[in-house]
Amino acid sequence: MRHPYNKKFSIAHWDNLDSDDFFINSLANSSEQYRKEIYDLYFGSTFVDDTIQYGNTMGTNATPGQYKNLLKIQDKYNVPISLTLNEMNRPFQLLQPAILKNLIKFIKKYYDDGVRSCTISHVHLMRTGALQSKFPDMQWKNTVNHGIKSTQEFINYVKLGYNVVQLDRDFNRNFKRVSKEADRLKIKTCLLIKEGCMPECPFKVEHDCWQSSKDLKDTGKNYWQTVDFTCGHWNKVSSDYEKDVGVTNPR
Q1: What does the alpha-carbon distance between residue 20 and residue 22 come to, in Å, rounded to a whole number?
Q2: Residues forming a β-bridge with 47
């Protein structure tokens, strides 16, 4: 039976789990209707070439076992899976032919496995047209971190080569204005409906830049463990900073 929410929701895979099988088992035990409502499942991976890396803003990647299970999910439940390369740090070196060729090889492994959706934050890379040429059947998504809030910005990203455009969540009030253009250009749009960050969070850019960085990973702690006065606790300074540098906790 057709349902108004079928193929409506893009859902994050739980990359941060220690278990390879917990997600696929949970999905198997969910209702058939729940599975029908999933537009795609997005997962993280990281391209590494010598001194540069380019991957997932959240700093987590699906393990090889989780990725195999994602392929099984795609095959068994007809739920597309989506590679995510949305890091806020977008290395200039990716435009160099030798490194771009290696990135193409990296994406090709997923493409050959049947992955047909990919989030790319690197707009200069998209502008080259190299990815669209090599992977013509791929759905290319921009990232919500691009913050598209107008119809003109939507058109700009379509011109860059994106064929699935993710809009800023503040744009939902004016969605009708862009829907006509999306229909005319035959482009899909997405709208963020759930996020852990508060709207217009003043920490978001630094959070997204740091969380996937090698420097932070080298500390052995995640973002919230390292900076414990952010996001939900942004109106206070941690006791460690008060003790170590003599900062007075603001009120």
Answers
A1: 6
A2: 54
